[in-house]
Amino acid sequence: MVGDIASSVTKIADEISNKSNWDFSYFERIKIEVESHLSKYSEDNRFPILPQRLVHIIREDLPDDGIVTLDNGVYKIWFARNYKCYEANTLLLDNALATMGAGLPSAMCAKLLNPDKKVISVCGDGGFMMNSQEIETAVRLGLNMVVIILNDSAYGMIKWKQEGMGFENYGLDYKNPDFVKYAESYGAIGHRPTSDEDFKQLLAKCLDSDGVHIIDIAVDYSLNHSILNVLLKEKTCIL
Questions:
Q1: Is residue 103 within 8 Å of 128, Cβ to Cβ?
Q2: How far apart (Å, rounded) are the C-alpha atoms in residues 106 and 93?
Q3: Beta sheet of 119-124, edge-to-edge order
Q4: For residues 5 and 8, what is the distance between their CA atoms, to the nearest angstrom?
Q5: Residue 236: predicted pLDDT
Q6: CA–CA separation, 194 vs 191, rounded Å?
Q7: Among 82, 113, 136, 180, which residue has the fewest nearby CB atoms (within 10 Å)?
Q8: CA–CA separation, 225 vs 163, rounded Å?
Q9: What is the pLDDT of residues 107-132, one digit of tens each?
Q10: Are 117 and 67 in contact (CB under 8 A)?
């Protein structure tokens, strides 16, 4: 069948006259689990910030048509699982090839195509540094956008994968430049929040200000293994 998924499913459902024996109990349990998952840690204001909390704050601050573009790191999983989209093409990620360095240029393109919409790029420190020179392009083009660098001084995705496979952490930690000074060297505006509340206020201010804003924020990935590896496996068996 070729057609729009939503309208096709609706038409198929309309053609089914007897629905008395349909059992949705399994899906109701799944919905409860999903809603519980989305709300857990969303109000946890520890610092460095949890990715779940970051997703919640961004969703609260962005209007329904605001656009988030993602680079490729473990935070992408949290956005894919926790970020609710209210309009099409408002969460952009290249999931198949998962190319690092895509977050910043894709945000620039989104802003060029949608100049009146709020645009946030979320990058890991590793992915950001693979295309960070494009800050110059964004500044030169006069774009108004926010870039959030989740800074763990490591390749967090691979560190999480290594732990999930029972390997020791090896060769994944490194030192970063001073991202605030780095942003300023290109003519952008650099920020480094020091608390959850500081980040909330700063993000709101940046979204309402002109210019390219680079926010360097420390991230806490300590729960990744226990939730995305251990707990997820347990829940799969139960459900």
A1: yes
A2: 9
A3: 91-92, 67-70, 119-124, 145-151, 212-218, 189-191
A4: 5
A5: 67
A6: 10
A7: 113
A8: 7
A9: 999 999 999 999 999 999 999 999 99
A10: yes
Which H/E stretch holds residue 59? helix 51-61
Alpha carbon distances (Å) from 86 to 66, 89, 104, 194, 202: 10, 9, 22, 31, 24
Contact 64, 86 (CB under 8 A): yes
Q: 235: which 2 tokens?
A: 């829940």
Mean pLDDT, rounded, of the chain:
91
Instruction: Name the residue type at position 170.
Output: Y
DSSP strand pairing (145-151 vs 212-218): parallel
pLDDT at 238: 54
The owner of tokens 């200000």 is: 209
CA torsion sign for 193, 154, 125, 37 is negative
Secondary structure of residue 143 in the 3-state scheme: coil
* pLDDT tens digit sequence for 45-99: 999 999 999 999 999 999 999 999 999 988 998 998 899 999 999 999 987 677 8
Q: Answer for the pair 72, 98: CB distance below 8 angstroms, yes or no.
A: yes
Task: Walk me through the domains of the chain, giving residue ranges and CATH numbers.
Answer: 25-238 (3.40.50.970)
User: Distance between CA atoms of 55 and 41, rounded to whole angstroms?
Assistant: 10
